[in-house]
Design a protein that fits this description.
Order of helices and strands: HEEHEEHEHHHEEEEEEEEHHEEEEEHHH
Oligomer: single chain
CATH class of the largest domain: Alpha Beta
Number of domains: 3
Structural class: alpha+beta
CATH architecture of the largest domain: Alpha-Beta Complex
Distance between the termini: 69 Å
Number of helices: 11
Strand content: 15-25%
Helix content: 25-40%
Largest sheet: 6 strands, antiparallel
Length: 504
């Protein structure tokens, strides 16, 4: 049998991804479900020699699905844009994000709502999702949509990730980057616990880097903290790392980062920063090494997390429960303890396998096997947004049927709400809820306050739906982890939801 040399080249490039090889087609394309396709980038020009050629993809979709398909291009790279008219302009690129990174929680919510609309408009429409290789970014969005839309079959995030890996690859290596897997887990737990997603802040005070015996580092480490738009929020100075001559050992099951032989606080405890962080956060760690007599700074690793999951009580319980955690989970571990150097602190700890870039370092050439990074932070007490639900929205969904979740945004994009409601709250209703919240928050305010105070309240009600108490004088909080967002200084959102159910 004579094999087309171009197809052979494409098979080599696609590696272990399953290909569609039927009816004269040989494409890097897989049906995850009968109406959900994951595929590689439809290339033109010379790239079409070793990737899916755009002509072949167009011919395939037309022959198999007619005009009943919709494509999502997740590539943010300008060179990955193509002639959408080849697909009758049934292409959306609004949910693109960078390679080897996760999408924001907001973007995941928006994507799922948009994709659901496409299927509702046309029952037999097929969704086609692709990035460059059609595996990592494509897998994140595919898994999140399965969790969102097909709740009866897919409600466990790790099982859904495994299902996607089996469907898309022959070696079950689908979504492998820890932060991408973490965000699929975030989203799955968000849906399963039926909580409202409202942006929450933490007060970042530094990183704690720990490891045991070290035969690797002969360098210094530094890091940057960035927001979702990659703006730098904090940049640390460098600290030198020690090198040991002893042999490393396996860590005991009850190992704690506070028991580590080497602990590095960046910045030092007496110089801790106080940086408010909100929603999606990127931490990049750099290593400075000496090469040929010159100091060279190279990126060592990075990881993403979302502050909401460190603050919302139900999410805290999941991140803190390591006993029920599966080995494949990349959620990280939330804890709270007294550190002699820093006082009472909250820690969000990532082990080596949870960190992007180090998870593939099987031979420990980049860092010791015991390498961990802990985010040190304090909670900022803020009162919850009070939502007065309709009779329909306060009913718990039937666990036997899919949960029809809705995405709601305020006019200034400051609030996203997930609720088991069958209708969206319009802007007027949301504004009415916000005004009700303003009245409750201002109930204890002196009635004789001056015009400036009234103006400030008015500005806050239109520009932000959140209310924040002033920080402690020394900017430190002595709250326990259970106090976050549910202490005496804040209304408990879960209690409000239970009250809503009682009223209904």
């Amino acid at each position: 049998m004579i094999t087309n040399p171009m197809n052979r080249m494409r098979q080599i490039v696609s590696k272990k991804k399953r290909r569609y090889q039927q009816d004269g087609f040989d494409l890097d394309l897989t049906y995850i479900r009968p109406n959900v396709i994951a595929m590689g980038y439809p290339a033109d020009s010379y790239e079409g020699v070793y990737r899916n050629h755009i002509v072949d993809v167009s011919r395939f979709l037309s022959s198999k699905h007619g005009d009943k398909f919709y494509i999502y291009n997740l590539c943010v790279e300008s060179e990955r844009q193509y002639d959408y008219s080849r697909f009758n302009n049934h292409v959306c690129s609004e949910f693109s994000f960078e390679d080897h990174n996760p999408p924001t929680i907001r973007m995941i919510l928006g994507f799922c709502q948009h994709a659901k609309t496409q299927l509702k408009e046309m029952a037999d429409r097929t969704l086609v999702i692709h990035c460059k290789a059609g595996k990592g970014r494509t897998g994140v969005m595919s898994c999140c949509f399965l969790l969102y839309y097909y709740r009866q079959e897919h409600n466990d995030p790790l099982a859904t990730l495994k299902f996607y890996a089996q469907q898309r690859t022959s070696n079950e290596k689908g979504v492998t980057i820890p932060s991408q897997r973490r965000y699929v887990e975030y989203f799955g737990h968000l849906l399963n616990n039926r909580v409202m997603y409202i942006p929450k802040q933490i007060l970042f005070t530094g990183l704690l880097i720990t490891y045991e015996q070290n035969q690797v580092f002969t360098s210094s480490l530094s890091y940057t903290v960035k927001s979702a738009d990659h703006r730098i929020q904090y940049q640390s100075f460098e600290i030198p790392l020690e090198r040991d001559s002893t042999i490393g050992r396996d860590l005991p099951p009850n190992y704690s980062v506070l028991h580590a032989t080497h602990k590095h606080f960046i910045p030092p405890p007496n110089q801790q920063c106080r940086i408010p962080l909100e929603e999606d956060v990127l931490i990049e760690i750099f290593a400075t090494k000496t090469k040929r007599g010159k100091s060279v700074k190279e990126k060592l690793c990075h990881f993403w997390f979302n502050t909401f999951f460190l603050v919302e009580p139900k999410m805290q319980a999941i991140l803190s429960d390591v006993n029920e955690r599966q080995a494949e989970s990349k959620l990280g571990t939330l804890s709270s303890c007294l550190i002699s150097e820093c006082g009472h602190k909250h820690l969000y700890t990532m082990t080596k396998t949870d960190i992007d870039g180090l998870h593939k370092d099987k031979l420990h050439r980049l860092s010791p096997s015991s390498f961990t990074v802990s985010v040190l932070f304090d909670y900022i007490p803020t009162p919850s947004l009070i939502i007065q639900p309709t009779d329909q929205s306060c009913k718990l969904p039937d666990t036997r049927s899919p949960v029809n979740l809705k995405l709601i945004e305020s006019s200034n994009d400051s609030t996203l709400i997930i609720g088991p409601s069958d209708k969206l709250i319009d802007n007027d209703e949301l504004q009415q809820n916000n005004e009700t919240n303003d009245k409750l928050n201002s109930a204890k305010t002196n009635s004789n306050c001056d015009n400036n105070n009234r103006n400030r309240r008015k500005d806050r009600s239109t520009s932000s739906n959140r209310r924040a108490f002033a920080l402690y004088p020394n900017c430190l909080s002595d709250w326990d982890s259970t106090d976050s967002e549910s202490g005496t200084n804040e209304l408990n959102l879960n209690d409000e939801l239970e009250t809503c159910q009682t009223r209904c």
